[in-house]
DNA sequence: AAGACGAAAGTGGTTGA
DNA sequence: TCAACAACTTTCGTCTT
C-alpha cells in the first residue's frame, strides 16, 4: 500500500504487524479502522482483530473517587482529550521505510493541528472546572462532546471560549442529572449567570439539542448530605416529590425549591429540626420559596402521603 | 432572641399577540 | 417588539417557641 492510498483512507492507519496475515486472501496489508477500532484487511475487508487501541490507562485521576469511576468505565477513548486520547498512538511497522513513516507522522500531526488545536484550551479549562466542581467522568465527557459539536458548527467563533465551556459544562450537568447550579458554574468561570445562560440557550437552540428541566429529586441527596440528614428523610422527600409530580404541583416551579420544600416536610415528619434558612441555603433559594413549597406540600401532598402509609402494606416497588 | 409565617412590592424571564 | 403574566426574591411586621 502506497502512502498516497493511505492518505485517501484518512481515518485509517496502516499497521501491518510482523507475521500478521489475512487468513482469507493472504494479504499482509492490515489496517486499523479508527471508527471501530478494528483490525481490517485492506484488500478484502475481513475483520481480523478486535482492537489495537492501547489497553492500559491513558487517563489520570484526581482523586480515588474519580479513579474508581474511570476504572469502572474502562474506556480508553474519551472526547475529553484531544484526538479522543488517541493522538500519539499511531502506526508502527517494520515494513514501511523510515522516510515514509516520518512523512506519515508529519501528516498526522498536521491533521491534529488543524482539527484539534482550536479546542485544546477549551478542554484544559473544562478539566480544571470538572476537578473543582467535582463532576463525574461521564459528565465531563458529555461536556467535551457538546463542545466539539458546537465547535464543528462554528458556534465558537467570535464568542468567548470561557462562556462556551461554562455553557457546555452546565448543559452536561443537566443532561447527566448532576445537581449543579448555573450560578456555581458561572462563578467558577468568573462570568455572570446571565452571560452563561445566554450562551447556553444560544448553542442549544442552534444545535437542536433538547435539555429537559432538572428533576427535583436530584437535589434531595445534595441537601441531605449537606445538612447531614438521615436516609429516612431522603426516602420521605422523594416520595413526597413523586406525589407532587402526579398531582402536578411541581410543573413550572423551581425544582431546587420544590426539593427543599419536600425535604423540609420530611424533616418535620421525622421530628428533626432544621431551619428553613438552612434548607434554602443548600439549594440557593430563599426561605420564602421553601416556605411556599412546604405549604403546598402540607396542603396537597401530606393527605395522600398519609393515606398511602396507612392503607396497603408497603409494596416491593417502593 | 431566633425562627416561622404571610403580605406587599420589585425583578427577570417567558409567552402570545 | 411589547405587554401581560407567573414564579421567585426582598423586605418587613407579627406571631410562636
Give a quick summary of the entry.
By secondary structure, this protein is mainly alpha-helical.
**Count of DSSP H/I helices:** 13
Let me know the average pLDDT.
Answer: 74
Order of helices and strands: HEEEEHHHHHHHHHHHH
Gap between N and C termini: 62 Å
Uncertain stretches: 1-18, 51-76, 86-92
Radius of gyration: 26 Å
Question: How many beta-strand runs?
Answer: 4
Characterization of the model:
- With 318 residues, this protein is mainly alpha-helical.
- Helix 5 packs across helix 6, helix 11 crosses helix 13 and helix 12 (276-282) packs across helix 13 (287-310).
- The termini are far apart.
- A 4-stranded antiparallel β-sheet has the order 1-2-3-4.
- Among the domains are: 120-206, Cyclin A, domain 1, CATH 1.10.472.10; 217-310, Orthogonal Bundle (Cyclin A, domain 1).
- It has 13 helices and 4 strands.
- It is elongated and about 80 Å long.
- The chain binds a DNA duplex (17 and 17 nucleotides) through residues 194, 252-254, 257, 275-277, 285-289, 291-292, 295.
Structure characteristics:
Cyclin A, domain 1; 318 residues; DNA-binding; mainly alpha; disordered N terminus; four-stranded antiparallel sheet
Secondary structure elements and pairings:
Layout: H1 3-9, E1 12-14, E2 30-33, E3 38-41, E4 47-49, H2 64-73, H3 98-116, H4 120-133, H5 137-152, H6 161-175, H7 182-188, H8 193-206, H9 217-226, H10 231-246, H11 255-270, H12 276-282, H13 287-310
Antiparallel strand pairs: 1-2, 2-3, 3-4
The chain binds a DNA duplex (17 and 17 nucleotides) through residues 194, 252-254, 257, 275-277, 285-289, 291-292, 295.
Amino acid at each position: 500500500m502506497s502512502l498516497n492510498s493511505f492518505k485517501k483512507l484518512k481515518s485509517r492507519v496502516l499497521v501491518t504487524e510482523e507475521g500478521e496475515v489475512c487468513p482469507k486472501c493472504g494479504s499482509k496489508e492490515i489496517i486499523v479502522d479508527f471508527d471501530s477500532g478494528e483490525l481490517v484487511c485492506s484488500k478484502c475487508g475481513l475483520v481480523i482483530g478486535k482492537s489495537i487501541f492501547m489497553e492500559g490507562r491513558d487517563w489520570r485521576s484526581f482523586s480515588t473517587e474519580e479513579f474508581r469511576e474511570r476504572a469502572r468505565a474502562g474506556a480508553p477513548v474519551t472526547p475529553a482529550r484531544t484526538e479522543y486520547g488517541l493522538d500519539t498512538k499511531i502506526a508502527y511497522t517494520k515494513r514501511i521505510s523510515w522516510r515514509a513513516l516520518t512523512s506519515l507522522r508529519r501528516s498526522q500531526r498536521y491533521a491534529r493541528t488543524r482539527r484539534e488545536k482550536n479546542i485544546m484550551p477549551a478542554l484544559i479549562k473544562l478539566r480544571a472546572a470538572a476537578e473543582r466542581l467535582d463532576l463525574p467522568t461521564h459528565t465531563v465527557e458529555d461536556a467535551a462532546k457538546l463542545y466539539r459539536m458546537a465547535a464543528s458548527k462554528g458556534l465558537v467563533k467570535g464568542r468567548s471560549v470561557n462562556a462556551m465551556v461554562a455553557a457546555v459544562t452546565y448543559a452536561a450537568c443537566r443532561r447527566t442529572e448532576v445537581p449543579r447550579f448555573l450560578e456555581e458554574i458561572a462563578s467558577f468561570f468568573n462570568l455572570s449567570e446571565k452571560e452563561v445562560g445566554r450562551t447556553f440557550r444560544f448553542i442549544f437552540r442552534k444545535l437542536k439539542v433538547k435539555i429537559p428541566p432538572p428533576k427535583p429529586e436530584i437535589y434531595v441527596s445534595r441537601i441531605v448530605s449537606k445538612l447531614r440528614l438521615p436516609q429516612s428523610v431522603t426516602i420521605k422527600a422523594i416520595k413526597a416529590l413523586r406525589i407532587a409530580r402526579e398531582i402536578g404541583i411541581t410543573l413550572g416551579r423551581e425544582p431546587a425549591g420544590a426539593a427543599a420544600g419536600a425535604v423540609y416536610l420530611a424533616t418535620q415528619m421525622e421530628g428533626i429540626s432544621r431551619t428553613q434558612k438552612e434548607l434554602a441555603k443548600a439549594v440557593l433559594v430563599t426561605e420564602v420559596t421553601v416556605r411556599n413549597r412546604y405549604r403546598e406540600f402540607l396542603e396537597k401532598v401530606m393527605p395522600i402521603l398519609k393515606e398511602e402509609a396507612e392503607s396497603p402494606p408497603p409494596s416491593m416497588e417502593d
